[in-house]
Write a structure and sequence with these properties.
Length: 249
Amino acid sequence: MKKNHLRIALTLVSLSAVTMLAGCGKGASAGKLVMATSADFPPYEFYENQKIVGVDAEIAEAVAKKLGRELVIEDMKFDTVVAQVASGKADFAMAGLSVDPDRLKSVDFSDPYTTATQVIIVRKDQTDILTPEDLTGKKVGVQSGTTGDLYAENIENATVERYNSGVDAVMSLKQSKIDAVMIDSEPARVFVTQNDDLQIVSEPFTEEEYAIAVKKGNTDLLGQINTAIKELKESGELNKILNKYITAE
Ligand code: ARG
């Protein structure tokens, strides 16, 4: 777990650097505000009646409103979301996206709007996996390019199977093609609720922060987003959105 502590420490250092840069200049740019996401991640972003809804979609809507811009959500594969922002094709990314040192090389992150952890999902008939350490030598399914992917990669002798979405990994687990799925805690809860042959085994074993990513150096937009997040926190609107989609355990 040493590596994780290092990661968190690095994240904190980088975050304060980002915070210092933010807040300069306001200059509201008119028009559309394009958000890159991967709408396969309930309760943060998922489809309901052909519309992308969830915690991130609602926070983004509230932020766009404060910025006086029209929100346009673009759905894509998760492992392309950060690149889309880095290249300027989208204004920001919101995808249950964890602040991560690697990502900070190509994008800047806002102040976090919530926290998350990784957990392990197994079939209920499995009894030999109880902790991350038990994944040694196992086949672990992850969504490609996620922090779960990174952690799984560091497990000794584990084979990492990468999928386009968490649901694809979960399906594979149900068919016994893999031994476990490593994914963020809230989507895991949703998937386990929908599949009574599955269960979450591990206690949360990482700490991650979800934040909004903008193109590196876009301090103007970052400042506006941070102000909006601060206001949403202070007014209680942020908590209201979180509580609407996430029920306390
Ligand atoms: N929090 C993890 C990460 O940042 C997983 C995010 C997956 N998000 C999604 N919309 N599929 O890598």
